[in-house]
Amino acid sequence: MTHIQFTPFTAPIRVAVIGYGLAGRVFHAPLVAGVPGLELACICSSKPEAVQKDWPQVRVVPTPEAAFADPAIDLVVIATSNASHHALARAALLAGKHVVVDKPCTVTLAETEDLLAVARQQNRVLTVYQNRRFDGDFLLLQQVLASGKLGRITHFESHFDRFRHVVPGKWREQDIPGSDLWLDLGAHLVDQALQLFGVPDDLSLDVARQRENTQTNDYFHAQLRYGSSHPGLRVVLHASSCVTSSGPRFAVHGTGGSFTKFGLDTQEDALKAGGRPQLGALGDWGADPLTGQLVHHAAAGLVTEATPDVAGNYLQYYAGLRDYLQGKAAAAPVTPQQVYQVMAMLGRGEQSVKKAAFVPTGDLR
């Protein structure tokens, strides 16, 4: 991917959040406001009273175009329904704004490729919000892998199971482009797998509609196969909406030991409850009440040990982006190549469903 050139910011970076549903209200506005050097300057919403109740000092505009046309806005966050991402991000880039898009970047790889091309032409940043890189359990997993205690990794499972037996009447649950669970949670799990192991040789994907009256896929099971880069490694990515008693969030096995971790990162629930973390004053933010278990081979035989608590910190995504825009970091937290690879992997998964077979992915490296 071609490196873009832009003038680094020296003053606070003024941010507009487009959309004030779950993504904008819970995941973006509080995090932008919690990072020094970023200013939550504008929110686009059709319900200004809801915004003003939460953020009385922030200007509310009724249309995205009003935010894009504002010369004072530097960075735009697209936090709307998936099918709208392409058109809104494209318009923001053409208006000269840097852009964060909530995952998935777009509904199709072709749309993502178009946005990346426009960003290069405009010398503007296009990046995707991958907050699950900053889950406490994922940060812990990276530490465990780096320790070498598991040896060469042979099997990795990542589950994101929930129990949502009643189908809500929201856009994510409707039969419309971009509502598939594979595009939703799959975007997180694919990104994490790529961060850990890189691009696999091939993948297969199975999807299903399991709940009564569901209009879109609410289950997926993906298998990623690795060859020379990780001999014999098999990766399973799985999500379901019909699981009342979840198994491990992560289960990792290698030639030297195994690691298991139960529970989900606590930050989403804390943000839904109204939490407003502040970088530099986090306290117990992101603390994980459940330890992981590491069983590994040592001279005396198998050793079992509890892993330390590693706190998650979604603020680091926006802090990293701030640093990049200020010229203090070499890359955005999610680079153009990573944006492309995740969308391409999601697309190959959809191809696998149609073919009912493994689909090659090695060319995406």
UniProtKB/TrEMBL annotation:
<comment type="similarity">
    <text>Belongs to the Gfo/Idh/MocA family.</text>
</comment>
<feature type="domain" description="Gfo/Idh/MocA-like oxidoreductase N-terminal">
    <location>
        <begin position="13"/>
        <end position="129"/>
    </location>
</feature>
<keyword id="KW-0560">Oxidoreductase</keyword>
<protein>
    <submittedName>
        <fullName>Dehydrogenase</fullName>
    </submittedName>
</protein>
<dbReference type="Pfam" id="PF01408">
    <property type="entry name" value="GFO_IDH_MocA"/>
</dbReference>
<dbReference type="InterPro" id="IPR004104">
    <property type="entry name" value="Gfo/Idh/MocA-like_OxRdtase_C"/>
</dbReference>
<dbReference type="InterPro" id="IPR036291">
    <property type="entry name" value="NAD(P)-bd_dom_sf"/>
</dbReference>
<dbReference type="InterPro" id="IPR000683">
    <property type="entry name" value="Gfo/Idh/MocA-like_OxRdtase_N"/>
</dbReference>
<dbReference type="InterPro" id="IPR051317">
    <property type="entry name" value="Gfo/Idh/MocA_oxidoreduct"/>
</dbReference>
<feature type="domain" description="Gfo/Idh/MocA-like oxidoreductase C-terminal">
    <location>
        <begin position="145"/>
        <end position="355"/>
    </location>
</feature>
<dbReference type="Pfam" id="PF02894">
    <property type="entry name" value="GFO_IDH_MocA_C"/>
</dbReference>
